[in-house]
Amino acid sequence: MLQFKLVLLGDSSVGKSSIVHRFVKDSFDELRESTIGAAFLAQTIKIKDTETQEDIDIKFEIWDTAGQERYKSLAPMYYRNANAALVVYDLTQKNSLSKAMSWVDELKSKVGDEDLVIYLVGNKLDLCDNVENRGGKEQEEEENKRVVTTQEADSYAKDQGLLFAEISAKTGQGVKEVFQTIGEKLYEIKKPELLAKKNREYGRNSSEAVDINIQRPNTNDPTSCCS
Amino acid sequence: MSKDETTIKKMLVDHKIDGPLAAKGFGPKYSLRSPSVPNLHAKVYTEYNMSDPTVGNATGGQGTSINEEDGTLSVIDMYGDDDNDIDDIVSSRAINLGSGNDDGNDADDLRSSTQSENIFNTTSINNSIDKPNGTGTGKNVQQDAQHNDRYGFKKQNNSISESDYDRWWLDYSKYCIRRKHKWQLLLEKSGLPIVDDSPIRFPPKSEKLKRYVRKGIPAEWRGNAWWYFARGQEKLNKHKGLYDKLLVKVDKMTSQNKNDKTYPDLDIIERDLNRTFPDNIHFQKEVFQNGEPPMIKSLRRVLVSFSLYNPKIGYCQSMNFIAGLLLLFLDEERAFWMLVIITSRYLPGVHDINLEGVNIDQGVLMLCVKEYLPEIWTYIYPNHSDTTVDTESNRRTMSSVPHKTQSSMMKNNFLYKLPPITLCTASWFMSCFIGVLPIETTLRIWDCMFYEESHFLFKASLSILKLSEHDLLKHTKKRYHSSSRLPYSITGSNHNSSGDLLNNKMHQDENDMEIFQVIQTFPKKLLNPNDIFDKIIFKKKFSFNRLDQEEIDRCRKYVTTQRNKYKRYVELIGNDDKTSEESSATLVNKENLDKTQDADDIINGALSSEVYGFKRNLTGVHWNNSLKEKVRQMKKKIDGDE
């Protein structure tokens, strides 16, 4: 089993906790208490190795954080050593996208890990027009609350090299896929490193000398730093 | 059914309009009867509420089945603690048990509960709702009462099932009744009147009163008692009329533009209003279909007023819960002043814009854990002790080894690089345990906080951590079974490849998270407050029970200066990014790692000359006691021999 640390960041009440709960417990509460400090949850998913078709278990250790600006000073403790970050904004709140952008900036400047997977996520798709499953009747009753266009966020994400999706924690639309994609992406990134580690451990068990030899190819390993 | 909803609504609104107090001549300003949700039957801000459509509609409505008597029910009455029942029980109990045993040894609660079992069996607490005067509405309320506690919170949550709750409440409600009786006797003895089951004055501080408070203030009296012990009236008298002035401003602000950019707090408050106790009926929209629940309106006014009153704090998430809980027990104005008092006296700086106060308190808590709960400290901060692998043996070494040899553990860089667990414990302080512990347990801690000042919050935290020891141990055992390698077996640095360092770091992170998870979920299960009080707080053997306010204040000062010093050193060294927490994730480069460690050493060297010393002046008492016990046993033995 592989374990990855994932952190959720974003403005207050964009739905960070709701996304986590949809993913971990597959449930949704219309009114969820505001998160104080941080909450920690874990969830395991399965992905397939594209070459061997082997099932791989991926365990996400998820840090759900409080959204208010002043909690920002605590954020470094959450994203320290994180493998992935879900930067969430609210499709119905213009301001939340700029907050998300400043989180992306902070992650890029402070984490400095090139392998960090950043996923820009627009939440509350259920309140927006382009919901496939919505009947015509409802559409008339409920107004479209979208203020952030798909294109706007998408082009920003492309520009910054982020993954991007619009989801709904309420209906569940797109939530699983986001985590699935992150899992696959991280596995892809970490695979060479894992293989190298396997080799190292194998070498260590047989003899010290072999160990040194096997370690040599590791210079290609992005996380290795012996030079 | 909507009919049910309207009746409940009507009931609640009625309380608000002409609550029992107005009728009883308690003055229009606010009532001193304190039971929960005085908002709904006490202080009426006429100028604000008259325009409230909820009120108008509801009173204009007809077909209500509520009679006069219902109007005098407080919310607590509705949910269980029916006064008549209490009186009945109290009087019969007084006959049965006599009233002389309230003094000194009242630790007999458990025993007396069996004695008086027969009395309580005949008066089931929940039966009060079935009484004839509630025929029409009783059923509706009862339905709610089945699922909600006496404060309106849902009994069930992720950690506690409704049947667990009911089982606990069956016993605990009896305990509450016994305690209330003792309080009544105490007040009577002290010559303090209890008007309308709502005392406004309490006896002067004493060991006895402290014990009473620790055993729980009667729920109906809580608002008044908190107000009294926190010296709220003093504060209010100094600022007479201020709250009303603030309200005028608030009214202008909120009616003008809710998204006013010049008051960013306003927007954040607005977003949190409906996320404050969404499972408490008094905060729920459904009950008040015609508009916002009065409780939400009060909450908005209190929070916005506060942000105007104290711009240094403004609004900080978590204050919504504190204010919300206060509003369940006090009228709006008093709730406001209590919020002022809590954020300044009990939780100084905790809600400030930079949250430094909460970091300081976490530093203090960590110092206390290290000093008083070394066995827990090894879980929380294992990376700096040498023998972290075997916690059992470690515990022994920690307690027996004199302090000098613990020098490696004496380094106090954990004061500025707080252990990850503090991300969890920080919320204990920010929300004053609301949402961390089940509600009754939270309230019991609040009782003590107002009586004993803020050091009680540390005692409570230490108690929770101590109680979680079993779960922590279970977790580590499981862990050692499942993994062949030990998490903190850091071999000699010479043999360490960077890969090993990384691995160790990963294992450490993993461990931190598992510890975090235990500490995060454990308190939610502490349904019975007496688990904390009887098992820990009342036990002399736990040395942290000797902590007092002076010690905590001294500790806070020390941590504050240490953290400031650290900040200055970091500035001096000039590579903030490389030494601070945030970039350690990127320290893949060994050179960098060494640099960081160097910097750490310099800082530690400079700071570790100053080590916080807890007062140990009372340890002698303990020693004396054990000596006394030994002498007694020897005497016994000699006597026996003779």
What is this entry, summarized?
Chain A is of the alpha/beta class and 227 residues long. Chain A has one domain: P-loop containing nucleotide triphosphate hydrolases (Rossmann fold, 3-Layer(aba) Sandwich).
Task: Report on this structure.
The complex is a heterodimer of chains A (227) and B (642). Chain A contains seven helices and six strands; from the N terminus they run E-H-E-E-H-E-H-E-H-H-E-H-H. Chain A is of the alpha/beta class and 227 residues long. In chain A, strands 2-3-1-4-5-6 form a six-stranded mixed sheet, sandwiched between helices. In chain A, strand 4, helix 3 (94-110) and strand 5 (117-123) form a beta-alpha-beta unit. The relative contact order of chain A is 0.16. Among the domains of chain B are: 144-226, no CATH class; 239-346, Helicase, Ruva Protein, domain 3, CATH 1.10.8.270; 356-391 and 405-482 and 504-575, Ypt/Rab-GAP domain of gyp1p, domain 3 (Cyclin A, domain 1, Orthogonal Bundle). Chain B is built from 33 helices and no strands. The interface between A and B is large, with 45 and 49 residues.
Instruction: Sketch the major β-sheet of chain A.
Output: 6 strands, mixed
Pair of chains with the largest interface and how many residues each contributes: A-B, 45 and 49 residues
User: Which overall shape of chain B is indicated by the principal axes computed on the Cα atoms?
Assistant: globular
- What is the radius of gyration of chain A computed over CA atoms, rounded to a whole number of angstroms? 20 Å
Number of helices of chain B: 33
Distance between the termini of chain B: 81 Å
GO cellular component, one term (chain B): fungal-type vacuole membrane
InterPro entries (chain B): Rab-GAP-TBC_dom, Rab-GAP_TBC_sf, Rab_GAP_TBC_domain
GO molecular function (chain B): GTPase activator activity; small GTPase binding
Pfam families (chain B): RabGAP-TBC (PF00566)
